[in-house]
């Protein structure tokens, strides 16, 4: 699929320091947010929910304390929503490990990681704040240490002021 065809999947594409964020809408709801590499061109919002989401994503990129308030599609299983609720309780600038979240909700670290990877609304549900006990962990179902997705995770954590971990000192390039 070329970039132009891929862009057609989104109701808006917002430029970000690490690439872009694709916004999919359905009816009056935001259906999905997707991290996109920099070769995706910005796309003006095509409907009201995309306009609202694009404005809020842009606000977050300027201010990491910004709180999202979007009409989200009902995604995920009951278990995934429990994990996502626990993720939303992690303060900006902080991280928790998969194991810490698992203990909190009475689950297993691998299951928490799978729920993180199934997150339809990154940024809104800040799964980038969840790491492995010994390092960065994966992100958006990717674990390539030098890949695009983990570079996005590093950028987001630095944007939010999470500087206590050595894995954040790695070079971020886009």
TrEMBL record:
UniProt GO BP: DNA repair; methylation
Q: Does the keyword Transmembrane apply?
A: no
Tell me which Pfam families the record gives. Answer: DNA_binding_1
**What keywords tag this UniProt record?**
DNA damage, Methyltransferase, Transferase
Q: Which domain of life is it from?
A: Bacteria
Recorded GO MF terms? methylated-DNA-[protein]-cysteine S-methyltransferase activity
The answer on whether this UniProt entry bears the keyword Methyltransferase reads yes
Ranges for domain Methylated-DNA-[protein]-cysteine S-methyltransferase DNA binding come to 79-162
Q: Specify the protein name.
A: Methylated-DNA--[protein]-cysteine S-methyltransferase
Q: Which organism is it from?
A: Massilia horti
């Amino acid at each position: 699929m070329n970039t132009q065809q891929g862009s057609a999947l989104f109701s808006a594409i917002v430029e970000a320091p690490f690439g872009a964020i694709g916004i999919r809408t359905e009816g009056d709801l935001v259906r999905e947010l997707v991290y996109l590499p920099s070769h995706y061109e910005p796309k003006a919002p095509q409907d009201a929910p995309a306009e609202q989401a694009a404005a809020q994503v842009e606000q977050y990129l300027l201010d990491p304390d910004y709180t999202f308030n979007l009409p989200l599609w009902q995604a995920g299983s009951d278990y995934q929503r429990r994990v996502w609720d626990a993720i939303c309780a992690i303060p900006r600038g902080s991280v928790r490990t998969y194991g810490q979240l698992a203990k909190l909700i009475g689950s297993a670290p691998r299951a928490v990681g799978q729920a993180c990877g199934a997150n339809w609304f990154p940024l809104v549900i800040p799964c980038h704040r969840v790491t492995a006990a010994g390092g960065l962990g994966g992100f958006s179902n990717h674990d390539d240490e030098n890949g695009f997705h983990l570079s996005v995770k590093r950028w987001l954590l630095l944007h939010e002021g999470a500087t206590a971990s050595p894995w954040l000192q790695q070079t971020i390039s886009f």
